[in-house]
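User: Design a sequence. Structure:
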């Protein structure tokens, strides 16, 4: 599962899993990720999950600026629309995030659980 890692003082702080098809970010409390920062617009940006069937059904994460006052930045470049990649650095107001999509995810695959020799312990096998 992909996630945003909020960076504070050079180290990872809060982890925000991306578990819905659309995640909103902004200052308003109705956002999925509410950022208490005067430099953040009420409805600042959105991350939408799409499925790329030409690449075997992998998830793609699209970050879109919602015409915010102070813009959205990825890797220190102002963006309007950007397909996120592993390790991208996102800046919204004074908030910094790293995009983490280190797990290979496909819609057409389900993890198979294997029983270990330890009672009640299961694991997923590697490919």
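Assistant: Done.
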């Amino acid at each position: 599962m992909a996630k945003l890692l909020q960076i504070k003082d050079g180290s990872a702080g809060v982890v925000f899993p991306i578990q819905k098809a659309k995640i909103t970010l902004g200052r308003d409390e109705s956002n999925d990720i509410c950022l208490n920062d005067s430099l953040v617009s009420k409805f600042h940006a959105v991350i939408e999950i799409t499925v790329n069937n030409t690449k075997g059904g992998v998830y793609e994460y699209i970050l879109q600026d919602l015409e915010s006052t102070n813009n959205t930045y990825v890797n220190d470049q102002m963006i309007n629309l950007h397909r996120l990649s592993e390790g991208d650095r996102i800046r919204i107001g004074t908030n910094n995030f790293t995009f983490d999509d280190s797990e290979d995810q496909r819609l057409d695959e389900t993890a198979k659980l294997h029983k270990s020799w330890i009672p009640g312990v299961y694991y997923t096998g590697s490919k």
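The first strand starts at residue 3 and ends at 8. Confidence is low (pLDDT under 50) at residues 105-109.
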